[in-house]
Every structure is written in C-alpha cells, then in structure tokens.
Amino acid sequence: MRRLFTFILAFVLTSFSGLALTQTEGAASVNLAGEQRMLSQRIANLYIQTGLNVMPALAKRQLGLATERFEGNLAALKPVVAGSAEARRAYERLSGEWLGMKKAAAVAISRDAAVALSLRAETTLAAAEDLTRVLENESKSATSRLVNLAGRQRMLSQRIAKSYLLRSWGVDSLAVRQELESATKDFSAGLIKLRASQVNNAEIRGELDEVAQQWEWLQASMSVDGAGYYRLIVAESSDAILESSDRISRLYELQSRR
Length: 258
Fold this sequence. Notes:
Elements: H1 23-51, H2 56-77, H3 85-105, H4 111-138, H5 144-168, H6 174-195, H7 202-222, H8 228-255
C-alpha cells in the first residue's frame, strides 16, 4: 500500500513578533518557508497523479490537504516577516503567486491544465525560494543552512516525481526533460552535502541512509519510462523520500534549540 505522507506541525509559530529572529525562531521559520517550496511542487505532482489515475482518490484527498497546508503556512509566516521590509516583500510576492496557482489547481484536470499548473508551480517555487533565502540570511541559527538544504530535498523529491509523471503523460518537452535532469542532479548533490555534515547525530545519519536507499530505488524506477506500474513506484518512492527528508529537516531544526 502506498505510504501516506502526513504533514505534522512540529512547531507553533505563535511567539514570533518579527525579525531579527532568535536562534530557535530562525531555524523554525526557515523550515516553514522551505515547506512552501515543497508544497508548490507537491500540489502540481498530486494533480498530475490524479489525471494519470495513480491512486486517484488518495491523490485528490492529499491535494486538498496540501492546499490547506500552504494557506495555513502563509498565515503562520505573516507575523514572522512583520519586522523586516525585505521579508515582507518576499512574503507578498509569494502570496500573490499562490493566488494564481490555487486557481490553476482548481481547474478540471486535463493534460493541458496540468502543464499550466506546472508553470504556475515554477513561479510559486521561485517566490518561496526567495522568502526562504531571506529568512535564512536573517536567522541567527548556525543550523539554518542545513534546515534549508534538507528542506530543499523535500521539494526536489516532489519536483522529480512531477516532472517524471508529466513526461509519462506525453509532455516530453525540452523544458520538462531539463527540469527532471537538473532536479535529479541537485538532489544527488544535496544528499552528498548533508551526509558530509559534521553536526549529524546517529538519528540523522540513519535517516540519511534511508533516503540514500530510497533514492537508488527511485532512480532505478525512473529508468523504465512510461509504464503505468512504474508511475506508482515513482510516486511511492518520492513520498518516502519526502517523509525522511522532512524528518531530517526537523531534526536539524531541533538542534538549534539545544
């Protein structure tokens, strides 16, 4: 049975009154903004899965949950950015991009609509990347860089699945092929950097080992192009990587509290 990724709010951002952020708040805000990157790609991925009939009932349900999560994160981030003009500008840009993406995700599912949503996901991703960068730069936490990097792996897991599934739906454009290739390279490079970190404890190393195994399996599955069975495996493997990468990001965040 397909592994079901459940979003867990591991921290509550009610105490933020603005920037500059304390060490603990900085890592948490970077993690939360970074999650928006992942959700931009996950929403498009789940939309495409539904169109391809890859566990459609589950994908449709998770699409609704991911949309709610994105909006909840925006609400939680609003007080975080209140004290920084640069962060507020980045936040407003993300909020504006999200309005367009949300509308695109509500359109009746078709291949053309999936392409349009994927394009919207790109601009939303860019805005989320910008906000995450600003918050990392203004954070006082030494681990914020690792939180950001691990969080970006979450996004890449969904970006890879989205690109693969879009290609398997017949959207085999140069842009989609390049997106898949670059996301694959970025994920491999990110995994190497995370495994080399000197701050990794036994729990983090164990999670990274799990990601490495799942990554090998995902790459092997993607080498068999277009088969319906492998669509399901790619969806499952990318979700397994998402789960582990999310735990790793939160473990790095917890280190900032110690």
